[in-house]
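Researcher: Can you fold this with magnesium ion in place?
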Amino acid sequence: SKTERTFIAVKPDGVQRGLVGNIISRFEARGFKLVALKLVHASPEFLEKHYADLKGKPFFPGLIKYMASGPVAAMVWEGLDAVKTGRSMLGATNPLASAPGTIRGDFALAVGRNICHGSDSVESAEKEIKLWFPEGAIQYTHALADWTFE
Ligand code: DAT
Ligand code: MG
């Protein structure tokens, strides 16, 4: 286990439903450090890069259209095992299988409207952070660091 960065994005449905603050709160409360944050209305071309691995899936056109339908709240969170823990905080891809207590398990019903994205590996996190934040993350001392891990 080590300090990692993960890319988390509240999808257009999550923004419209007013869930940005709740999702940010969960990552703050868990002890993660916010190192990048912005609202982006992404183009289909940009989103095809983000979801390049899924090109060819039957749901791909619908996924791109949904993700381009409004702004997303893009962020980078840093901390101990941020990628794995971020995924467990999100819950399963299909909200039908997401446990209550997870973001998707608390707020979502349908796989095509599952309100939040999270990187699935350290490698994809690095790729996604570069794509969404070419300007880089913010460096600062986190006041809680000494209280959240050794
Ligand atoms: P995740 O977002 O959990 O990493 P993924 O990378 O496999 O899941 O897929 C990206 C998104 O595509 C997912 O959040 C919702 C959509 N999606 C995945 N599988 C789908 C399916 N079978 N039908 C409709 N949308 C799907
Ligand atoms: Mg994924």
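Model: Folded with magnesium ion in place. Residues 129 and 135 are 10 Å apart (CA to CA).
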